[in-house]
Amino acid sequence: MHEEILSVGVDIGTSTTQLVFSRLIIENQATSFTAPRINIVEKIVEYRSDIYMTPLKSPTEIDAEKIKRIVKDEYAKAGHQPKDISTGAVIITGETARKENANEVLSALSDMAGDFVVATAGPDLESVLAARGAGTDIYSKERRTVVANLDVGGGTTNIGVYEKGKLVGVCCLDIGGRLIKVENGIITYVFHKISDLAQKNGIKINVGDKADTAVLSHICELMADQLAQAIGCKQMDGSHLSLYTNDGKPLPQGIDIKAITYSGGVADYVYGQSDGNVFRYGDIGVILGEAIRKNKDLAKKELLRAVETIRATVVGAGTHTTEISGSTISYDRKKLPLKNVPIIRVSEEEEKSLETFEKSIRTQLALYKQDGKIEQVAIAFTGTGRTGFNEIQALAEAVIRGAQEVINSPFPLLLVIENDIAKALGQAILVKLENRKDVVCIDGIAAVGGDYIDVGEPIGAGSVLPVVVKTLIFNSL
């Protein structure tokens, strides 16, 4: 079995907006003597849009109509229509995610970009997409080492760290090239966290000041120094924790980063020098790139060239948001697709006992009620250690007891499992419920509580389902 699906990625960033169209190649890699094993075996970027400055109506509002026009025009240039698209993501990133109408813009674009293209945002997901778009995961796997990607954009720096191909940490800092803006030699905007950082180091900077290159270079050196602290190149100072986006957390302790890739709009000025026009984009992006390149602590790590720089996030959105669940799944085709379903997650600790397992489900379901009625939810867990017939039967009974409110609702029972037990578990539940309930049970998918999931219509002769797990959490000021 060989099948191609078309995916789109739309990235609305602090500085730029762009699209990519990609083809995902799906194949059954199992032998004739084993169960089907459907995987995405190749991802080909077939069209890259022009790069546009993100249009704004005001400092606090995105120009939604201009964004729509950009997307529509680029679809036409690529020779595609929304109905051609099987999967993908519209993401809004960096400081743009703080705009007042960010959520509304995403919702509108999601509808016009394609039925199964999802609207998604959030610094953690952006860190992953940028790192994978930059090729950091592949570098770490091939070199059998730990590699960090620093995606330095206009409003934020998203950091994703991979060890031997496995994600081991993400974080995001409010450090970027458009956090200080310059027009006609005058400073027109300073993000409050950068103003605080400068002031703590004896530098005064205000809107209306002359754009002094020496002063701005000093501030960018401080910003680069904070990035060095974030990846463990030097000890954290008193300012560091305040710079994490949305009061986020640093990388987990104990990660020994050996090499760095850089992506984002600032990355080109980390890898190469400018031609001297440091304010060409009306901000400090060029100066920040130079400061990062010259930082002695960051230079202690091996520098690897990213596969993509300014396009890393959008390539990640177009090629790395979709996962495949198949061969051991159970579903009712009439209930698909399912979109924007909130995920509740049973922890591994709670899974160890079936009593705590069902109690966790009941407790979390209480959070998803409106007017006393349950909403559509997805219940996620690992399914570890429950592969035998008796274990599956006991687990099915625990799911039924814990999810009784869902079973009594008009919504299908949606289970998202990491281990390959979905078909057996789904069938066991159907038998116990005497086929009185629609059940969609998928596996091979890791999901986190608080995120959302989309499950698409079957592909691959009905043997697999495309799945996107995403977050809709926006940054706050």
Question: Mind explaining what this structure looks like?
Answer:
By secondary structure, the protein is an alpha/beta fold. The chain folds into three domains: 120 residues, ATPase, nucleotide binding domain (Nucleotidyltransferase, domain 5), CATH 3.30.420; 171 residues, Nucleotidyltransferase, domain 5, CATH 3.30.420; 126 residues. Helix content is 30%, strand content 28%. The strands form six sheets. The chain has a seven-stranded mixed beta sheet with strand order 16-24-23-17-20-21-22. Strand 9 and strand 10 form a beta hairpin.
CATH topology of the largest domain: Nucleotidyltransferase, domain 5
Which architecture name of the largest domain does CATH use? 2-Layer Sandwich
Q: How many domains make up the 3D coordinates?
A: 3
Q: How many strands appear in the DSSP assignment?
A: 24
Low-confidence spans: pLDDT under 50, at least 5 residues?
A: 30-37, 472-477
What's the short version?
30% of the residues lie in helices and 28% in strands.
Properties at a glance:
6-stranded mixed β-sheet; disordered C terminus; 7-stranded mixed β-sheet; Nucleotidyltransferase, domain 5
Secondary structure topology:
Blueprint: E1 2-12, E2 16-28, E3 38-48, E4 52-53, E5 56-58, E6 61-62, H1 64-78, E7 87-92, H2 102-113, E8 118-121, H3 123-134, H4 136-143, E9 146-152, E10 157-163, E11 166-173, E12 180-183, E13 186-190, H5 192-200, H6 213-230, E14 259-263, H7 268-271, H8 285-294, E15 302-303, H9 312-319, E16 322-326, E17 338-345, H10 348-351, H11 354-365, E18 369-370, E19 373-374, E20 378-381, H12 389-402, H13 404-407, E21 413-417, H14 422-432, E22 439-443, E23 452-455, E24 464-470
Parallel strand pairs: 1-7, 7-8, 9-14, 14-15, 17-20, 20-21, 21-22
Antiparallel strand pairs: 1-2, 2-3, 2-4, 5-6, 9-10, 10-11, 12-13, 16-24, 17-23, 18-19, 23-24
Helix pairs in contact: 1-2, 3-9, 6-8, 11-12, 12-14
